[in-house]
Design brief:
Strand order of the largest sheet: 1-4-2-3
Number of helices: 2
Order of helices and strands: HEEEEH
Shape: globular
Structural class: alpha+beta
Largest sheet: 4 strands, antiparallel
Helix content: 10-25%
Low-confidence stretches: 4-13
Radius of gyration: 15 Å
Length: 91
């Protein structure tokens, strides 16, 4: 942190929406808040009857934050957005 900067100011300007993975209903790039993994959700992945399905079994709910509306955002840009918001990444 720079001299004289407060923690709140350093956290970044973006407010990233956070939700359970099973409630994702819009395309985009999402960060798993537990593992730091990047989930890319293209529009075709949300279509009913598409046949694509991801099953995650866990005792804890998988929480994600939306990094971008673009599921194909370059990894470096996704990492920068996550870092600007104090999130750890693993991709």
């Amino acid at each position: 942190m720079g001299k004289g900067r407060k923690w709140k100011e350093w956290k970044g300007d973006q407010s990233l929406p956070t939700l359970p993975l099973n409630q994702v209903n819009q395309p985009g790039a999402y960060l798993d808040l537990h593992t730091g993994c990047l989930f890319r959700v293209p529009p075709e992945g949300l279509r009913v009857g598409n046949g694509s399905m991801i099953l995650i079994t866990s005792e804890a709910e998988t929480m994600v934050c939306k990094l971008s509306d673009d599921p194909y955002i370059p990894k470096i840009k996704a990492k920068i957005i996550a870092a600007d918001n104090n999130y750890w990444t693993n991709f």
